[in-house]
Amino acid sequence: MKKTGAQILVDTLLYEGVEVAFGIPGGSVIPLFDVLYESPLKFILCAHEQGAAHAADGYARASGKVGVCIATSGPGATNLVTGIATAYMDSSPVVAITGQVKTHLIGNDAFQEADTTGITRPVTKHNYLVNDVRELAKTLREAFYIAGTGRPGPVVVDVPLDVSLAECDATIPDKLSLSGYKPKYDGNPRQIQRAADVINEAKQPVLYAGGGVISSGASDELREIARRIGIPVTTTLLGLGCFPEDDPLSLGMLGMHGTAYANYAVQSADLIIAVGARFDDRVTGDVKTFAPKAKIIHIDIDPASISKSIPVDIPVVGDAKRIFAELGKLVKPVDRKDWLEKVNKWKESHPLGYEPDGLKPQYVVQQIHEVTRGEAIICTEVGQNQMWAAQFYTYTMPRSFISSGGLGTMGFGFPASIGAQIAKPDSIVFDIAGDGSFQMNVQELATAVKCNVPVKVAILNNGYLGMVRQWQELFFNRRYSCTRLDGAPNFVKLAEAYGAAGFLVERTEDVRPTLERALEIDKPVIIDFRVSPEENVYPMVPAGKAIDEMIGGLA
Amino acid sequence: MADSEKEHRHVFTALVENKAGVLAHVSGLFSSRGFNIDSLAVGETENPQFSRMTIAARGDEQILEQIIKQLRKLIYVIKVQDVTPADHVERDLILIRVNAEPHRRQDISQIAHIFRANIVDIAQQDLIIELTGNESKIEALIKLLRPYGIKEVARTGTVAMLRGKK
User: Reduced to 3 states, what is the DSSP secondary structure of residue A479?
Assistant: First the structure.
């Protein structure tokens, strides 16, 4: 039976098990939306394509499934780019389907034409321009396969209007053959043995776990190994939740705004076991000074991550879950009482903290943790709010912390929280926001209200682009150039204008009751917390320093 | 400079899908990752489904390793080899338009002869020399012709292939 490209496209999405897609229609995707009109696929109409891309990303990170967004050609596609780049930097599986002008018009500067594959090439795992309707089903299936396997990432499929309209006898291929893409899942047994030998001999080892542990679903294995053989675990920002932070072996986050004890432990370690992490500059500080005494084992599914910024002694390429399963058979409990005592002393002497004068952002985050009993999904914006959310909420489950780590995209958290809430309708979903970041995708309030997505937005409102202000304070002689956010709206009225609920909190004692009230409201809620304007994120490793050269927040 | 001392030139061959956009993926990778590329040559292989690219690039050990790994990550790239350490053949084709007033043609023609280069065009004031060879041979010819006045140069970039097992 002949089908149009648009029909084939939607059929293939359903074949891939897609339940929800986010986006906005436009000229070159009208045939596609015509098919969606009576399709079981739930389409979430967003207010801006950037919001759609972040929502698809948030959906993917909360569920582990591939997130899907759809936009039209030209500006629709270019508006997706920040969202695609965000997903790329954080290895999040997203398929972005974009309309394109008719094939005979490509390159002609046609109306709403942009070179989407050209623009997105550096920020995608792969991309396609589909020239022939007969290739469409296969291409889409490849896109999902590539996005969701190996080191996940976004894939763009650009579909010209005439391809959507063309008809062909369509069958969705059930087998794919991609000769240039064969992710390696099993670790080399010899490398695993070498790693195990080094681990068994290490006196001061630290596990350094990143987002790869979460995407591989290896949290249980990580926990099992760490506890059985007694190795402290620090995580990256994106790794938060992959190891329970209430475990005595947890060191919390490391790096620029990590805990002092995580950074001290890494700098004193004789072995770093990196898993699904990529030695980002925010983690290592000055690379020449990072973990100076340590041998480094690096377990990662992406061979290109290995020895990219830090030379690695024992690389193990493959899937963290499978490698842990093998490694677990070879590593033995070793008595490292001295090391663990040393680490615990650092934990006692250098806890995270803040001065409790006035309404403090850290206190708000702690209270969110308490009222949600640590069971919420926390999305964040970027900047100070993100770091406080990382530091002062205790994450115990994978996929409970969703944040733009690599690209650092302000405006990510709110649309991502909508995607996360749609993926996990029974969870409490918070967006811990700043007043600056929130305003970057505030238009998605319309989406949240219209689709009954009851996300809670906690704005840590300090009236500044706070992280930049902090740098200006510390390194630019308090010259607050363009960081004061005058002209912010009344967030309570703004929420109400969209049909959401809004609260203003100015006193510490109102934090808890307002949060509790917000949780009882079954619609989006915005809480404007007027926090101390010049509160800083500490500890902090200044740029170019070693990670144990922290300033602030140290006892 | 200390940095350039650690830099080596390596030649990579990559078997890639013969599809639109492949060259953009490869060249884009080099520009977005800041890798230095000396030359890139591409053409269809014995199987029209695939093309072979030969890429000459420069960098220290770590960068050269990254180049291979990043190339391998590209979906359209099927196989990448660094042929530099192995026994291999490298060839580059160059066309040189050199100043050649009638009284100098003889000298130039002799140089070309010694290099086993061909003179493929003669005009009033210049001639075109074609030479195939490895990089050092081509550089040597350029050096010798420079005093006569080189007007134009066109090069294919290096192509390379491993020698067969003897």
Answer: coil
